[in-house]
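User: Could you check the structure of this?
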Amino acid sequence: MSTQTTDAKDKTIVAKVADSFQNLLSRVGLGAGSQNDASQYGFSPISRNRIQLEFAYRSSWIAGKSVDAFADDMTREGVAVQCDVEPDQLEQLEKAAGRLAIWDNLNDVIKWSRLYGGAIGVLMIDGQDVSTPLRKDTIQQGQFKGILVLDRWLVQPSLTNLITDFGPDMGKPKYYQVVADAQALVNQNIHHSRVIRLDGVELPYWQRIAENGWGQSVLERLWDRLIAFDSTTEGTAQLVYKAHLRTYKVKGLRSIIAAGGKALDGLASQIDFIRRFQSNEGLTLMDSEDEFEAHQYSFSGLNDVLLQFGQQLSGAMDIPLVRLFGQSPAGLNATGESDLRNYYDSIKQQQERKLRRAVETIYNVLYRSEFGQEPPANMAIKFKPLWQMSDTDKATIANTTTDAVTKASDSGLIDRHTALKELRQSSEVTGVFSNITDEDIKEAENEPPPDMNELETDPNNEANPQPGPGQEGREDIQPAIKPAG
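Assistant: Sure, the predicted structure tokens are below.
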């Protein structure tokens, strides 16, 4: 690279400098005349070859796992809805989500977005035109019918009619036209507000333009590593057939083959005779001038090669080996828990980035359709953790929660009705107190609040012991709270 500098006398000096390490004598470094100078990254847009992607997904388990693993884990546990409603209403809301297969369809949207580079899920509201903006406030009970999944090849985004309103969707297509080959809503325009859109690998602007506004398939970056892994695996499998080769030298073999007839038939009979009677305890009978040899192949080192290719795939997919291959890590006291925890943190990040807006919209619509009213203003969605606690951890949390709720109830901060609701809500994590019924909570709601004066003067109340005969003057056993006046 040439640069120009100016000295004190305003004379221009042209100098040639290098941007990286080079050793021209040894031809080391880029631009030094080595073979590396011819290396470059080619343009191979696999995402545009739908048939090739589908065949890879169908025939290669590792390609299918790279697409499915993230989608399955992102939708495995669902969400916990938090708001000021009765626990039975939350249970009814979750049952409605299961009845409409909300999480199954979200799983498909994620899968096909990863496989093809993009996919959408259409909110199906009975009685509303899909080409108009979504009107949440007009949704009546029973109108929400679920989610229709369409991949990028089943819709045509409006590339010239884009969203112009300020916000996170600005610049994206305002409508999606369903193609004639789709399974439903054929040739209809769908307004973007009714669409849950997910892209595969996000691309810079000009590359998105080349992909019709979508992202790229997650398989495109893995393509060379997938081919290398599958080729190595198949090559190793083929070596099994050559692990034990036997050679048999026959004097004048060419002449026997050329002569044919009885000579060739006799040789074939001899070879068949050897094959039938040769075993661990058998003998190999042959002419004294013949030679028989056995060659065995050693498989040492192949496991390391396969492991290295597997680690490359694991790193490229951001999926640990214990999840991708079901393989525990090697080493003393290695359990893979740290790898799984890091992976689950990555899943949590993807849920927050790509699913939160969509899930909040879905549950807002689902609540209106299930109960015929607007959801509470404080309704919040929390993704359930993927890491499953042990029985010991659950017992510890149950004891801590019970102590906290009991102390709050005994001190009068909450009533028994609220305490029972808190304990039953904690059963989602601990598995304890799940048998508290709605009738128990309703009965507790009708109970009168405890009389604090009775608690203060109750001689059985250990927290406020009363003085006995001859102990009136002792300050250490006086009531903690004295009556006013």
